[in-house]
Write a structure and sequence with these properties.
The chain is mainly α. The protein is built from 16 helices and no strands. 38% of the residues are buried.
Length: 384
């Protein structure tokens, strides 16, 4: 495998777009008071504050999560194809992800006042579930401590069932395996739609099942497989605009809303497949913006782990004023534009702090993983 196949540089820019979208999505709620439209009988109610309509494109920033899932599937399979050794794979993944996650978890759980857990049995259960990365499987722990941690748990569980994917592919091939995984995800998302129509919401534990994201993650893996073998990239002839239009249509139609994630994942796959096939990026970005997105992409994991607590801290005074206004203790609220500017001003701070995390936690963790694998290999040679 040549150097070109070892590293796909444009994926850092894709990660940068994804993490910026997630950040912008999380500022919509404090600015507008809502971050999505309420449901009518079948469609979204188009009733919202003017501030929400002005920032409505940002409310779709959550689609950065399906982007991350597709990129993750690509990178995980590329890494394994480069060195198909399960011990090496597991060690490198653990030391790549867990140290930064653990530090962020401990900071949020014990140091940050607005995310700190209670010293009780309930608090102990919270920290235990997060340490084990199973918080996505219980409504009581799903969004606690840090609202973004649920997706980290889902990703890790997808890594755990990754050998099942490879086993399935070895038996029936990629095409049939993807059909099976698509059918499974469609069934689970259909059940989610039934929950949404019948009870008005989908239980968090159900939305957190890793099998509901297995196809969306695996389409990244199948592209990596073709890329390594220099075969035509799947989805390269798909229309990203049509997939995106389908996703937006489902987003406002209640019976199909559960399929939005899957469709945005397909949109991402279509774009990445075209880029892997050598086609130019659909939008030409200024050089300074591309450099910044690339930097954000490199630090995207730390940004993802740390941005929400920082944004909560900035929101705390605003929320206090809103509570005071409801109690008629304070009648003047900050203008949404002021709140927006305050939240946007956090972005450079988030990128800076995440850079510290990347340099002093992520990179050392990666280095420890490499040394651990090399040491295990040397001991194995000596033993034989």
């Amino acid at each position: 495998m040549n150097e070109k196949q070892n590293r796909v540089d444009f994926l850092d820019g894709v990660r940068g777009i994804a993490i910026l979208g997630v950040f912008l999505f999380h500022l919509v709620l404090p600015v507008c008071g809502v971050n999505k439209l309420e449901w009518g009988t079948w469609f979204s109610k188009f009733e919202a504050p003017i501030s929400f309509w002005l920032l409505s494109p940002l409310s779709l920033g959550w689609c950065g999560v399906p982007i991350f899932f597709v990129v993750s599937g690509f990178c995980i399979h590329l890494s394994y194809r480069r060195k198909p050794d399960w011990f090496d794979f597991a060690c490198r993944r653990f030391f790549r992800l867990y140290p930064a996650y653990l530090v962020a978890l401990l900071i949020c759980a014990f140091l940050v006042p607005w995310t700190r857990i209670e010293f009780s049995w309930a608090g102990a259960a919270q920290i235990a579930s997060h340490l084990a990365m199973i918080q996505n499987l219980d409504n009581r722990t799903y969004y606690e401590i840090n609202v973004v941690f649920w997706s980290i748990a889902v990703e890790v569980q997808l890594y755990l069932i990754y050998p099942l994917l490879l086993g399935l592919v070895s038996k029936i091939g990629w095409r049939r395996a993807l059909i099976c995984l698509a059918a499974l995800e469609i069934i689970l998302r259909s059940i989610g739609s039934a929950f949404l129509i019948g009870k008005g919401e989908i239980p968090h534990w159900f939305t957190g099942l890793p099998f509901g994201y297995w196809f969306s993650w695996s389409i990244g893996a199948v592209m990596a497989d073709a890329y390594v073998d220099s075969r035509p990239i799947p989805f390269a002839n798909q229309s990203a605009l049509l997939w995106c239009a389908a996703a937006l249509g489902c987003y406002i139609f209640k019976p199909l809303q559960s399929f939005t994630f899957m469709l945005f994942a397909m949109t991402t796959a279509a774009v990445i497949a075209k880029l892997l096939s050598g086609r130019p990026f659909p939008v030409r970005l200024p050089a300074f913006l591309y450099r910044h997105l690339h930097l954000a992409g490199v630090r995207s994991y730390s940004i993802y782990l740390l941005h929400a607590p920082l944004m909560y801290g900035a929101c705390a005074p605003v929320l206090s004023l809103k509570i005071a206004a409801k109690l008629h203790l304070y009648d003047t609220l900050p203008h949404p534009l002021i709140i927006l500017c305050a939240e946007l001003a956090l972005w450079p701070l988030v990128v800076f702090i995440s850079g510290l995390s990347y340099n002093y936690i992520e990179l050392p963790g990666i280095a420890i993983g490499k040394r651990f694998v090399q040491s295990a290999a040397r001991n194995k040679v000596v033993a034989t």
